[in-house]
Amino acid sequence: MLYIKKISLVQFKNYSQQQYLFHKRIVGITGRNGSGKTNLLDAIYYLCFTRSYFTSSESQNTQYDTNGFRLEGLLERGQQEEKIVCTVKEGRKEIALNDDKYDRFSRHIGQFPAVMIAPDDADIILGGSEERRKWLDTLLSQLYPDYLEHLIVYQKILVQRNSLLKNIAATGQHQDHLLDIFDMQLIQHGQPVFELRSSFLGTFIPQVQQLYDFIAGKHEVVDIRYLCTLQEEDFASQLNTARYKDFQLQRTTCGIHRDDLLFLLDEHPMKTSASQGQRKSFLFALKLAQYEVLRQHKNLPPLLLLDDIFEKLDQERVTRLISLVSGPSYGQVFITDTHAERLQHAFATTNEEIQLIEM
Question: Which structural domains are found in the chain, ordered by start?
Answer without folding.
Answer: 1-113+300-359 (3.40.50.300), 120-205+226-258+283-298 (1.20.1050.90)
